Amino acid sequence: MRTLCASTLIGEVFIIGFAGLVAMKDPDLSMTTVWTVSGIAMFLCLALCGFVTRPGGVALGWALQIALIASGLVVPTMFVLGAAFAALWWASVHYGRKIDEAKARFAAQAAASTPDAA
Predict the structure, then answer these.
(1) DSSP string computed for 11-23
(2) Is residue 113 classed as helix, strand or coil in its secondary structure?
(3) For residue 10, is it left (φ>0), alpha (ψ between -120 and 50) or beta?
């Protein structure tokens, strides 16, 4: 699960950076505000890559997905991109868990079928 979720989060880092570039064109927003918010969001994505498998990591990922969708209030394209990445996040969590379960099952079968060398 960690690999799939981390891949999604790395993709989001780039999307957030590009959204920051688009948001800079808004005359109501200062460049400092845009890059502070974008920088914090990008850092959170990178930090979350290491915490995905820990308790609460997936929930933090969902909170990040909601924030990404909500950023569509500033950059309307982010409604679509945020929803797309939320779907990718769901797929990463769902199929990542299935892969982890299959790996554990195969490892248990391999350990059970290996005769003890006593």
Answers:
(1) HHHHHHHHHHHHH
(2) helix
(3) alpha
Hunting for tokens 């929803």 — which residue is that? 83
| pTM higher than 0.90 | no
Alpha helix ranges (H) inside 71-116: 77-113
The two tokens of residue 48 are 């979350």
Show the tokens assigned to 61. Answer: 């990922």
Q: Is the pLDDT of residue 116 over 80?
A: no
Burial zone of 19 (CB within 10 Å; 0-12 exposed, 13-18 middle, 19+ buried): buried
**Mean residue pLDDT across the chain:** 93
